Amino acid sequence: MDRVPESHAGWTFLTNHSRVLAAIAENHTTRVRDIAARCRLTERAVQKIIADLEEGGYLTHSREGRSNVYRIAPDRVLRHPADAPATVAELLSILQRHEAGQPMGDLVGPDESAN
């Protein structure tokens, strides 16, 4: 039985779909259980998200022994029209730079309080 993780009140910047995709990008043979723990989701929710991503053409998987090996479609355009023409690869690049602690450039502009 899936254990329900600690709930989070309020809104967030990233969707659960993007979190799951980022977890798979980090480790293409990761288990659903490990994705669920990392993303603070139930295993059932992760399975549903993986099915959504596969149905949308963003992800495929194959069995190798007892493990699933996931393959991400990096050139797929993100679903929301406001995000076009950004691709999955571009989204994952941003998320991976954040995870690695690399600077994102001057995204916020000059600090007005310094004037």
What does this structure look like?
InterPro entries: ArsR-like_HTH, HTH_MarR-typ, WH-like_DNA-bd_sf, WH_DNA-bd_sf. This is Winged helix-turn-helix domain-containing protein. The protein is globular and about 40 Å long. The chain has a two-stranded antiparallel ribbon. Helix content is 39%, strand content 10%. The longest helix is centred in the middle third of the chain and has 13 residues. The protein has one domain: Arc Repressor Mutant, subunit A. The N and C termini lie far apart (57 Å). The protein contains four helices and two strands, in the order αααββα. By secondary structure, the protein is an alpha+beta fold.
> Can you identify the CATH superfamily?
Winged helix-like DNA-binding domain superfamily/Winged helix DNA-binding domain
How many strands, what sense, and barrel or not for the largest sheet?
A: 2 strands, antiparallel
Report mean pLDDT, rounded to a whole number.
Answer: 85
Q: What is the oligomeric state here?
A: single chain
Summarize this structure as a short list of keywords or feature phrases.
single chain, about 10% strand, ArsR-like_HTH, Arc Repressor Mutant, subunit A, WH_DNA-bd_sf, about 120 residues, alpha+beta, WH-like_DNA-bd_sf, Winged helix-turn-helix domain-containing protein, about 40% helix
